[in-house]
Amino acid sequence: MTTIFTCEECNQTYEKGWTDEEAKEEAESTFGISTGAVVCDDCYNQIMYNRAKEIPVFKGTREALNNL
User: How many helices (H) does the chain have, and how many strands (E)?
Assistant: First the structure.
């Protein structure tokens, strides 16, 4: 099993904190689907914040917010 991953939102590399199965279960329970996309905790938190605010989230949103 690979112990590192690259976040699909910010493109940074991190050490995995969950197994692939745990991540899949979380995606299915939170979003109702498993896209296979893997994001870091910071990007996940930003996605959830945007979701709560009903703000559309698109790839690169985090980078744009950091540049404000």
Answer: 3, 2
Report d(CA 48, CA 2) in Å as an integer.
26
Residue 25 corresponds to which amino acid? E
Burial 18-45 (b: 16+ CB within 10 A, else e): eeeeebeeebeeeeeeeeeebbbeebee
Give per-residue pLDDT as tens, 51-60: 777 766 666 6
d(CA 33, CA 28): 5
56/4 Cα distance (integer angstroms):
28
